[in-house]
Specification:
Layout (H helix, E strand, L loop, with lengths): L1 H22 L7 H6 L6 H12 L2 H15 L4 H30 L4 H9 L2 H33 L12 H48 L7 H11 L12 H13 L5 H9 L3 H26 L21 H10 L3 H41 L5 H25 L2 H27 L5 H24 L8 H8 L3 H20 L7 H7 L6
Helix pairs in contact: 1-8, 1-14, 3-8, 3-11, 3-12, 3-14, 4-7, 4-12, 5-10, 5-11, 5-12, 6-7, 7-8, 7-13, 7-14, 7-15, 7-16, 8-12, 8-14, 8-15, 10-19, 11-14, 13-14, 14-15, 16-17, 16-19, 17-18, 17-19
Length: 521
């Protein structure tokens, strides 16, 4: 019964996504239309595009289950931080400045912004390379996050799909759907599908929370709090007991880290006016609070449905906590099958929206940023063809990495968020606000953020007990500290830019005036 209901829901969902892609093609005849929707996106579309890009299936399948298992209810602070810092402050501090300055500089991508803001072709090439190299493993993680839950819903799918495993079948479905509506409709299709997917995500997280809390195994929220307190007081502690430092690091990385991610920042480029920014700020903050806090809230109840081994860890690993919890709580009846289908669409929506933004950002890094340097006279129609083609290539490559489960790619996933954001966040923020920032200062931030992760990772490898088993084993072990590395990279990038700028050559008054001419102080 569950498989039949879920399959019907998937077919309806797929048809809707393709229709949206087809209907969006008329607004993608130019590269600006394809990448930014002609910079005419409204508040709700922009807010949901930002929010759905923020949260992928990784948060529900991996992070929520793990953090809920490790520290309990305090994990909800990560969702609160995502809403307050990653959305409210990000929109308030960055959105208007970004929109106005990128209009002024005719920048469509983050590398283009750096090239125009800092008069540096090398910065554009470097930024495009960082985006393309490190967003690909991040995209692969999006596929992997969804595969485990799909396998629980459709355990026998390999018998009808040429021997494909359930998780691989899921990855292929996500890839085909995402590539179809993205290639047809570009950013417009992405924003429209994000709006639909955002509504599904809200409905799904509410259904998930109610179904788990009201299940007899949990017995309601007061009973759950009492049971968790018996297991350990840290699971009901407001700040997670001794896990407060772990909590703080994850709040900073997943909240402040979004300020330097190009797939997030691009939403500010496309919004139509300042009035829409004000409305989008409220909408995206509310969305993030519901999805983020809701996911970590649900993850807390994993201990009621999943057994622990002798070491106190979930017997099938962290990634199986949420899938096993949901199938146990909702399996066996029509209502449960419907709720599971809604949750499946929640995870599918979260994955596809994030993947589409990553693909669009990465493809533009090649066609706009690199081709724009080495082939500046390229015909606009040909540029559009190459952009669509590269979208397909990026989807295919990230799919291959996810399905092949290359060991090195899996470990690089842990570093990708910190490297990309650590590279860009300092030069980006100071470039928006400071008239005194220099090219050397910007370069120091871009290089310093990446080096911070690299140096800390090497140190972690060399001091890891796993080094006796080889370099890769040490590299994999060091990836467990990647959130700390990422937070340090953010701090270095933000701090080093003004320090280096204070004693290096300034830009001319003419250039500074041009950059800030349309930016209200």
């Amino acid at each position: 019964m569950t498989q039949v209901v879920a399959l019907i829901a998937l077919v309806i969902f797929a048809v809707v996504m393709v229709i949206i892609g087809v209907r969006s093609t008329k607004r993608t005849t130019t590269i600006d239309g394809f990448l930014l929707g002609g910079r005419k996106m409204g508040a709700w579309m922009s807010a949901f595009a930002y929010g759905t890009t923020y949260f992928s299936a990784v948060i529900f399948i991996g992070y929520a289950g793990k953090i809920g298992w490790d520290i309990g209810f305090a994990g909800m602070w990560i969702g609160v931080g995502n809403a307050a810092i990653g959305c409210l402050l990000a929109w308030y501090i960055l959105a208007k400045r970004t929109r106005n300055m990128t209009h002024n500089l005719s920048a469509r991508t983050m590398p283009e912004f750096f090239a125009a803001r800092y008069l540096s072709r090398g910065m554009k090439i470097y930024g495009a390379a960082i985006i393309f190299i490190f967003l690909m493993p991040y995209a692969a993680s999006v596929y992997k996050g969804l595969g485990s839950f799909f396998g629980v819903i459709f355990p026998d799918i390999s018998s009808v799909l040429f021997g494909l495993s359930s998780d691989h079948a899921c990855m292929i479905i996500v890839a085909i759907l995402t590539a179809t509506y993205l290639i047809l409709g570009g950013y417009v299709a992405t924003a429209r599908t994000d709006f639909v997917q955002g509504i599904i995500m809200i409905a799904g997280i509410i259904a998930m929370a109610l179904a788990i809390v009201l299940h007899p195994t949990v017995g309601g929220l007061p009973a759950a709090v009492e049971k968790l307190n018996e297991v350990g007081p840290q699971f009901t502690s407001i700040f997670g007991g001794s896990g407060w430092n772990f909590l703080l690091i994850n709040i900073l990385l997943t909240s402040l880290g979004t300020w330097g991610l190009p797939q997030m920042v691009s939403k500010f480029y496309a919004i139509k006016d300042e009035a829409a920014i004000k409305r989008a700020t409220i909408v995206s903050t509310g969305f993030a609070l519901i999805i983020g806090a809701g996911a970590y809230f649900v993850g807390t109840f994993g201990r009621f449905f999943v057994e622990a081994d002798a070491n106190g860890l979930p017997v099938e690993g962290y990634d199986k906590i949420i899938p096993n919890m949901l199938t146990t709580a909702l399996g066996g009846n029509l209502l449960g099958a419907i709720l599971l289908s809604i949750i499946l669409l929640l995870l599918l929506s979260a994955s596809m929206s994030t993947l589409a933004s990553i693909v669009l950002t990465s493809a533009s890094a090649i066609t706009v940023d690199l081709f724009g340097i080495f082939k500046p006279d390229m015909d606009k129609k040909r540029q559009m063809v190459y952009t669509r083609l590269l979208c397909m290539v990026f989807v295919l490559c990230s799919l291959i990495f996810a399905m092949a489960d290359f060991a090195i790619i899996v470990s690089i996933m842990a570093y990708s968020w910190g490297i990309v954001s650590g590279c860009f966040v300092g030069p980006y923020i100071w470039g928006l606000y400071s008239r005194k920032v220099t090219k050397a200062g910007a370069w120091s931030g871009m290089i310093g953020g990446v080096l911070t992760v690299a140096i800390m990772a090497v140190h972690g490898m060399l001091t890891s007990p796993a080094l006796t088993d080889g370099l890769y084993a040490a590299f994999k072990a060091a990836s467990g500290n990647s959130p700390l590395y990422g937070v340090c990279a953010l701090g270095v990038s933000i701090l080093i830019v003004p320090i280096v700028s204070s004693f290096t050559r300034k830009y001319s008054d003419e250039h500074v005036s041009k950059v800030f001419s349309d930016v209200k102080v």
